[in-house]
Amino acid sequence: MLVPAPPPRSIRRRPRTRALVLAAGVAATMHGCLLGGDDARWSAGGEPAPRSLLVRSLEFTPVAAPALARAEPVPLHAMPPPTAAAVVPTKRQVRAEPAVALQAAAPVSPRRSPPAVDAVADAPPSATEVAMEEVVLVAADTPGSVADEPPPLYRTRLPPPVTLHYTMRRGMIPGSGELHWKPAGTHYEVRLEGRVAGMAVLTEVSTGTLDGHGLAPLRFTDARIRRGTNAANFQRDKGKITFSGPQTEYPLLPGSQDRVSWMLQIAAVLNAEPQHAAPGGKVAFFVVGARGDADVWVFRYVGAEKVSTDEGELAAVKFTREPRKPYDRGVEIWLAPARQYLPVRARFTTSANGDEFELLLRDMRSP
């Protein structure tokens, strides 16, 4: 029996050699991948890079657009600016309206745009302060009704120049007083002086011009012992009344008088229009003091009375002016028709404390 001969050794080992070669090739490939790291992985395909770039663009695009849309302060532009309400020129409404406008704006704005609300919240206080500075220029007794219903204008006939000497009494303290009336052409001066024990305790002076309606003051000064001197200025070219002390202003109404000129003005009115010295009669002036005070003084006819003076009894007509608020001045005045309706007696009282100041005629002298 024939037995086949075994294959040669080189032929028996060829499959093992091929396996070793193949294994070596795989090992080399894996080694190359390990050494190449990320470069080998990114170079293996182009898809990962575009995906990463696409993700980045998607992250930025949605953030930018909505942020701009929310940041636009459209509602604030539509709202009326708070400062416009704060500088309303109406003096009585300035105090009330700005506060309401600011309170209405505060709760609405924060829901829409907090950064813009901070700006709006900062603006109203400054506007209110400005308004309040202007509001401080108007005294508590600002004649708001005066502008709507100003006192009437009267025909006048001025009395001649004269000096009236009075017995003066302030409370229980006696003294003397003088009222000087000095018209000169188109100008005048009225001076009221009060003395106690020879010392001047009161000096009120009114200077101005004379027109078709009587006295038109330009300046009024009031000097008191221990108080100094204060003044009211009637700026007729600017149509306003200002003061040396308080930063108060009033409109200069036709026929306006000061605290001493009215004593001659009422005489001039009754000289020309004596019908006011009858039951139901009255005379009204816008009267200005020297310390920022002003109001309409309405003098109402009370009746006819006799006044005892050093020159004897004089027939007089009595008018009164009632105070309208605390520390306001009440006035009683007796005017003598036979003496050009000049004041032969006057009594001034303060409503709050009852202080009283009285003048009673001693004599009357022409220059």
In short:
This protein is of the alpha+beta class.
Helix-strand layout with pairing:
Blueprint: H1 9-12, H2 14-43, H3 48-71, H4 74-78, H5 82-86, H6 91-94, H7 97-108, H8 114-136, H9 144-148, E1 162-170, E2 173-184, E3 187-196, E4 199-211, E5 214-224, E6 228-235, E7 240-243, E8 250-251, E9 257-258, H10 262-272, E10 282-288, E11 294-309, E12 312-321, E13 329-336, E14 342-350, E15 356-365
Parallel strand pairs: 9-10
Antiparallel strand pairs: 1-2, 1-15, 2-3, 3-4, 4-5, 5-6, 6-7, 7-8, 10-11, 11-12, 12-13, 13-14, 14-15
Q: Explain this structure to me?
A:
This protein has 367 residues and is an alpha+beta fold. It folds into 2 domains: 102-136; 144-365, YmcC-like fold (Beta Barrel), CATH 2.40.360. Helix content is 34%, strand content 36%. The chain contains 10 helices and 15 strands. The chain has helices at 9-12, 14-43, 48-71, 74-78, 82-86, 91-94, 97-108, 114-136, 144-148, 262-272; strands at 162-170, 173-184, 187-196, 199-211, 214-224, 228-235, 240-243, 250-251, 257-258, 282-288, 294-309, 312-321, 329-336, 342-350, 356-365. It has a 15-stranded mixed β-sheet with strand order 8-7-6-5-4-3-2-1-15-14-13-12-11-10-9, covered by helices on one side. A hairpin with a 3-residue loop joins β5 (214-224) and β6. α7 (97-108) packs antiparallel against α8 (114-136). It is globular and about 45 Å long. Mean pLDDT is 73; it is low at 7-13 and 28-147.
